[in-house]
Amino acid sequence: MSLEKSQVEKIAHLARLRVNDEELEQVAGDLSSILDLVEQMNAVDTRGVIPMAHPLDMVQRLRSDRVTEEDQRDLFQSIAPATEKGLYLVPRVVE
Amino acid sequence: MQWETVIGLEIHAQLATKSKIFSGAPTAYGAAPNTQACAVDLGLPGVLPVLNAEVVVMGVRFGAAIGAIPQGRSVFARKNYFYPDLPKGYQISQYELPIVGKGSVEIVLDDGTTKRVGVTRAHLEEDAGKSLHEDFHGLTGIDLNRAGTPLLEIVSEPDMRSAREAVAYARKIHQIVRYIGICDGNMQEGSFRVDANVSIRPPGGELGTRAELKNINSFRFLERAINFEVERQVDILEAGGSVVQETRLYDADRDETRAMRSKEEANDYRYFPDPDLLPVELDAKFVADVVAGLPELPDDRRQRFSSVFSLNAEDAALLTSSRELADYYEAVVGVSGDARLAANWVMGDLAGALNRDGLEITDAPVAPAQLGGMLKRISDGTLSGKLAKQVFDAMWSGAGSADEVILSRGLTQITDIDAIARQVDEVLAANQSQVAAFREADDKKRAKMLGFFVGQVMKATAGKADPKQVNRLLREKL
Amino acid sequence: MTVAELAAGLRAGSYSSEELTRHYLDRIARFDAVLNSFITVVPERALEQARNADRRLKRGEAGPLTGIPIAHKDIFCTRGLKTSCGSRMLDDFVAPYDATVVSKMDQAGLVVLGKTNMDEFAMGSSNENSWYGPVRNPWDTALVPGGSSGGSAAAVAAGLCAAATGTDTGGSIRQPAALCGLTGLKPTYGRVSRYGMVAFASSLDQAGVLTHSAEDAAAMLQVMAGFDLRDSTSADEPVPDYSVGLAGSLEGLKIGLPKEYFGEGLDGAIAHSIRQAIDEFRSLGATLVEISLPNTALAIPTYYVVAPAECSSNLARYDGVRFGYRCEAPQDLEDLYQRSRSEALGSEVKRRILIGTYALSAGYYDAYYLKAQQIRRLISEDFRQAFAQVDVIMGPTTPSTAFAIGEKAKDPVTMYLSDIYTIAVNLAGLPGMSIPVAPVSGRPVGLQIVGNYFREAQLLNVAHRLQQATGWHLKHPGDYWA
Question: Is the confidence metric ipTM above 0.90 for this complex?
Fold first, then answer.
C-alpha cells in the first residue's frame, strides 16, 4: 500500500510532527514500504481470534485510596522549559 | 412550523476519593498550582499508572444505583490528543468496555407524571488540568493539580425533549451521586459538570445536527443554555439554513451560547487499550459486597416516606431531595414519633431558618434530637405552636435541648382550666364595647372578632395558654 | 573478568571497590572516545558509591554484588543524573526520580559508572539512531554493536564495566549481546518492573542485563526481579534463587528446534555455529525435538504495528511543556508542539510515530492494530503448543553477524529484518537469552534460548552448563583485553 502525500500530512498533523515539503516524498516512500511489510498480516485469516493486548493473562491490581505523594513542585519545575508562579507556561491558548 | 427538541447529557461527576485515580497525589480543591501534581500526574518519562480501588467501588455503586450492576471485565483505553492541560498527550478513559453499561433513571415532569431516561453508559477516566488565561505576558499558565482526578462520565440517551426535562434528569443524577456518596456535587468547583447535546427536528423525524453545549455550571444555566440554543437552531432552520455540528460555550453573563473560537478539527482520538493497565475483573463477591453496602436510593426512600409516614408525593420528594435532609427528617421522626408534625417543622421553620442564615442541613445548629424533643413537647401539650417557635429560636441560638429551654424560661403551657377562665373573664371585662359588638354581629364577622379576644388572652398569659382551650372558653362565655 | 570473579576478589580483599571503580573509570577514559558507549560518566558519584560499598564490605553488611561497577542503559531514570534515552528531546532531562531497577541496584550496593548510549528511545538494531552518535563494536570498530542496548553491549564487551542493564522490546538486549559476544537476558514480561524505564512499547518492553556469563546474569537478575506496586503489569510471582540450580544436570532436557529458525535467510556459517552448540547440549544429555512455530514470518509485520502504535502514544508526552526540549520562540501552541517534536526527535522515531498514528487512526484500526493483536495471539499460541512438547527452544539470535556502520542505515525495512528471531519472543512475553557460541570470521555469534513463562532459572541453568562445557563466553575482543 502506498501512502499519498496528503495522508502523510494528515498523520503528521495528528502526531504533531512537521514534515517539510522536501522530506514528504521520502517519508511517504519509507512509510509505504513499512506498510507493505506490515500487510503480510493479511495472509492470515484471523476471524474469531481474540485480540491479545497483554502478554500475560493477568488482571488489574488495585491500590488503596491513600495519599502517598508529597509536593515536589520545585524539583519537577527545575527541569521545565518555562514556569512562572508555579505554572507551566505555553503560548496563549484560545478557547 | 413545529419543532421537537432532542437533548442528551454528558455528566462528569468528580469522584470523592482522597487520592487520584492513578497516583497517590491528593485531590483536595484549591491548592497552590502544581503542588498536587506528582510524577505520574505530570506524565514524566517512565512513570506508570496504578488504579485506585475506591474508584472502582464508586463506579460499581453508581451502576447498581441505576439498575446496571457492573460485572465481568472493564478495560481502560487511551484517548489520544494534544492539549497543554493533558500531560501525557492522552487521557486514560474507557472506551469499548466501560465499567457501567445500560441503565436508566426516573424523572418527575412538571405535570407530576414520570418518565424514564436511559443512561447509555458510565465510564471511569482521569480529569485534565486547567489552563489559566490571566496575564502571563500573553502566555497561558498550566496548573496540573486537577490532572488525574477521578471522573465518572455518565452519558444519557437522547431521551429528553425539553430544557425542563434535561434539568430534571441532571438533578436526578446529581441526587443519586450524592446519595451514594461518590461525588460532592459541587457545581461551582466543577465537581459536577454537565454538557448538553442539543438538536431539533420535525416531531418524530430524523435526528437533527447537534451542538454540544459546555461551560454550564448550574442547573439554572443548563435550562437557559438549552432554551437559547433551541431558539438559535429554530431561527437557523426556519431561515433555510443548517445547523453546524460544533461545541458551543454558554456565556452566563450574556445568556447566550457561542461557538468555541479555537478551530475544532475533525477529532481522531485513536483509542486503544492502555498497555500500562490490565483489564479490571469484577468478581461477583466484590460486587455483591458493594451493592449490599449501598444506602437506600432516593426513589426508594421517597416511596417509603410516602407510605410509612403518610406524606403526600410533593412532601416526600422534598424531604428525600438529599440524603442529609432525609436522614435529618427520619431522625426527628424517630425522636418525636409524629411524622406529619416533623415534616411541617423540617420543611417550614427549619428550612426557613437555614435559608435565612445561608446554611446547609448538615450545618443546622438545631440537631434532629433537639427538634424531635421539642416536637414531643408539642404533642404532649406542654408547648403551644407559638411557644414552640420561641423554643426553636432559643435552640437555634444554642440554648440546649427543648426541655432545658422550657425549664429555664418557664415556657410551659398553662393547662389549668380555671386559670385560663380567670384570664378570659378579665379580658371580657376590660373590653366591654367589643363584647357588645360581638354579640350583635353575624357568624362571619364573629369568627373574625373572636381572634381579637384570643389574642388578648394569649397576650395576658404571655402565650402560655392552650389556644384551643382559650377558644372554647371564649365561645362559651360570649 | 566476570562479576562472580570480581565479587570474590572484593570479598577476599584482593582489591577494594574504589580501586575497581578507578580501574573501570580509567578504561572508559582510555577507550570510550572511540567506542562511544557512554552518554554520561559520573566518576565522583561512582567513587562515592564505591567507598560506601567498601564500608559495607568491611562491616560484613554487603550483598553478593556490593561494590561491583556497572552501567545503566540511559533509558532508566536516575535521580539527579541526566537520562537522555539517546534523544535530543531529553538532552537536558535530569530525572527527578529513580527507576525501580536503579533503586534496587543502589540498595544492593552496586556502583554506577554512568549511563550507556542507545538507539533513540530504544528504536533501532544498530545503535546508529542515537543523538549522541553511533556506538562502535569493540570486536571491530567499523561494525555496529547492535541495538538498541548497543552502548551497554559495547561497554561490557570492551571491559569498561563489569555488567550493564539493558531493555529489550524486540531484541534490544539479545541482538547486541549476540553481536558483541555477550550473555544477554531478557526476562519474562512483568518479571522486572518497568517503573522509571522510559517507555517505548509498553506491552513489549522488558528490562534485563548484558553480562559475560549466565552466572553473572543470574546474580544481576536476582537484584532486579520482583513485583513492584508502581507497575500494574509487573508479575506478583515469587522470585526463586537463581544461583541454586545453575549447575543442575541437563539430562533429559528437551530442546525444541523450530524449523522456521533454520531456513532461508540464515547465514550458513552461523547455522554451523549454532548446530555445533546444539551438539554440545546433546552431549550434555539433552534430547532434540524438531518443532514448528508456523507464524514466525508474521512476527515482524505484527511487531511493526503493535510497537509503533504504542510508541506513537507513549511519545506524545514530549511536547515541550513540562520537561525536555522546547523550540526557540514558538509562535503559537501548534508551533510549540510541531517544532519541539520535529527538531528534537530523530527520523527513525518519527517514522515509527507516524506508522503507529496511522495504524490507530479512524478507518485503519481494525485492519492494522486489531489484526496485529489477533496475530499476536496466534504467535503466542505457537509457543504455548511448543512448550507442551519441549523445555526450551533454541535457534540463532540473529540471521547474520555484526554488519558495518552505515550498511543498513538507508533502508528501514532491511534493518527491521535483523530482529526476525527475537521479536516473536517479545510478542509472546516469554523469557529469552542470547549466549555466545563459536565465532564466525572473528565475529561473535549468538545462540538464542527461549524458555517458558517465568522459567528464567531454567534458561540460566541451560546457558551456564554450555558455558562451563565450552568456554565460548570467555572470548573477548583482543584489542581491549590484551
Answer: yes
